[in-house]
């Protein structure tokens, strides 16, 4: 181990044998170790100097390790704290993490996990500027540093100047520095995975993998093998050993998206892995230690699922150590212009096309929509408008589509322009259709087919006949599944 990765560690435990075991283990790693049998001695040491890492048993002769943890927080000390809890004491572990502990270990302590936890805590420690002393006296000011470059970029991708979004970015920076599980709640399309990636990129694990899993997309009969891996011959078709998500995320972050869709049987197995930090591959005999940071997300009301018996309360309690909420667009309308600019830049960069200007009418049209699909729906609307527009400006009419019953105006005129027609009114249907969208699609399909046949399936001529441009008619032909006689014939373009 290099000198730069060594730490000054304070070990607090009332059992002499265990205290000595921890000391010897860390000394062999090259760390400087100081020990104390109780809170009183620990406070005395902390009053004399600063440490990089504090390891404390939860129960001590003169109080709880949590007391020490809370005192460090009140004093704004920078020591990273690792709490040792009794086997199965989930409540104590969660309480420690909520109180600011970096990590926890369960008795009997696995020495390999102890070394890894100390190294991770040291990794995440906020170092002083280059050339400044590594440690000092208790009067030294708290040390701080900005997130790593990857974290800065990840935070910039969370667009929005509203107070809510500023608070989210600040909270991400704060929670990223521990191992505490994070639960992200929010409606579909609000950017939960973007927040999860930012938590990872701002953490000391940013060099490790980020593995995202959609819990609702895995067949029930494969879910255990997908999560924990499988040994050769464990099931039909298992011709070789394979890693699971926990092994693939080793040293990094495992993002469990749509955790509310996880079957109850798998919830029990996941809880056991979280508590013991060990997995047994399907068909395997030996358990393997896992080293992952868990971040979960769902658009569902997990508390309601717990009440209905569809989600385990103990697992919910274990996952919901740190909560983050991604707000829907209706709660931050002031962020819409900035989101539109950011999305247009990304979409155009990926497609290699110039970035158009959004007109005031187009922005007003977007502002007037409910956007229940949030940012995802906004992105889809922008992609459609880019496909239908014919110039360097995105107009309001570029966003509307005849098949969009919420458009509120025709596809070729903004809402403020009066619609005059010299054509006779269209024949009304004899009955109200059961599916309005399908009915409108069929009407549009028939009109397009009529125009195409009239123009011998020349798309350019048919587009002119209907007052569309070539890009618009191509989009409609593709969306409605209209088969052209020959897409290879240049005369039909």
Automatic annotation (TrEMBL):
Amino acid composition bias (Low complexity), ranges on this chain: 418-433
Keywords, sorted A to Z: ATP-binding, Nucleotide-binding, Phosphoprotein, Transcription, Transcription regulation
Family annotation (Gene3D superfamilies): 1.10.8.60, 3.40.50.2300, Homeodomain-like, P-loop containing nucleotide triphosphate hydrolases
Domain Sigma-54 factor interaction: 158-387
Cross-referenced CDD domains: AAA (cd00009)
Modified residues (4-aspartylphosphate): 57
Name listed for the protein in its UniProt record: Transcriptional regulatory protein ZraR
Gene name linked to the record: zraR2
